[in-house]
Amino acid sequence: MTGSPEERWTPPTVDWDSANPARMYDYFLGGKDNFPVDRQAADKVLAVYPSLRNTAVANRGFLLRGVRRMAEEGIAQFLDIGSGYPTSPNVHEVAQSVAPSARVVYVDNDPVVLVHARAKITSSPEGVTGYVLGDLRDPADILAAPPVQQVLDLNQPVGLILAAVLHFLPDDMHPLRAVQHLIEVVAPGSYVLMSHITADFAKDETFGRLAAAYSSTAIAGQARTRREFEQFFEGLELVAPGITLVQHWLPEAEVPPPPDDLMPCYGALARKP
Question: Is residue 110 part of a domain?
Fold first, then answer.
C-alpha cells in the first residue's frame, strides 16, 4: 500500500497575512515553501539571534538520527506531531530506509503544510504515509483522526515525535498535559522523541530581544529550562545519552560543535516501559 488512505478532503482556509512557525522553520532551513510575511518575521528573529538558523539545522539532524535509532530498535510506525514542511529527507524516508514497510502519519496545524505534504511525500511501495490537520493542544482529536486510526495500530509500539513544537505552547496552553495524554495512550515499548528551545545558555538581554522579536510576529512561545524539559519525560526511560543539546546527541561527524549558547535546543529520546 502506498501513500495516504483516500478520504474526502478539501483544503481549509489559509491565513495568508500571518507568519507561521512551520513556514518560518522552512525558511531557516533554506526552503522555498514560505511567504513574504514568514520571511519578514524570520528575518526579524535572525537579526536578533543569527545562529537560530544553525539551531534549526542541528535540530533537524537530531530528529533524523533519532528516527533512525527508533527504526533500528524495531519501531515501524511513527506519529510526527508538529511535523512542519516535508523537507527531504523526512521521517518516512529515514524510517523506510531501515524498514521499507514503515508507516508514518504527519500532523501539523498549518493547512498549507498539509497541502504540500499530500503533494510531495511519496511513501515506499511497502509503506504508508498519512496526514492530519491537527493541533497538539487537542491530542485526543489527533488520535481519533481517520488517518491515524487507519495507518497506525496504537496497540503496538509507535515512535512519537514532538520535535521543536513544545516551545510554541506556553504553560497556559497546557503542553505538559497534552504530552502526558499521548504518552498514556501509546503502547508500552513506544519511543518518544522531543526537542525544545532553552534559555539556559543565553544572556538574559539576548534572549529577551529574541522573545520580543517572536512576540512582534504574534507567535506564542516559551523557552524552558532543562528541569522543565525533563518533566515532559515523566514515566519514560531516557535512552543514552539522555537529555543533551541537539548537536551533542549522538553526532555522526567528528566535528567540534559550536558553543552551546549558539545552539540552545535540548533534545532527548525515551522509551515507555
Answer: yes
Query: Under 8 Å CB-to-CB from 267, ≥6 apart: which residues?
Result: 59, 62, 66, 163, 193, 194, 195, 196, 243, 244, 245, 246, 249
Q: Which residue has the cell 511513501?
A: 123
Which run of H or E residues covers position 179? helix 175-185
In a domain, 17, yes or no: no
Q: What are phi and psi of 23, to 5 degrees?
A: -75, -35
How many Å apart are CA 61 and CA 39, to the nearest integer? Answer: 22
Angle, CA of 44, 21 and 36, to the nearest 5°:
55
Confidence of residue 10 (pLDDT cuts 50, 70, 90): very low
Q: What is the CATH number of the domain that holds 219?
A: 3.40.50.150
Residue 223 within any structural domain of the chain: yes
- Residue 133 in contact with residue 22, Cβ under 8 Å? no
CA dihedral 62, 68, 74, 78 (to 10 degrees): 70
* Residues 81 and 183: beta-carbon distance below 8 Å: no
Tell me the residue range of the domain where 94 lies: 22-271
pLDDT (tens digit, 9 = 90+) per residue, 101-131? 999 999 999 888 888 787 778 888 999 999 9
| Total structural domains within the chain | 1
The answer to the question of residue 139 being in a domain is yes
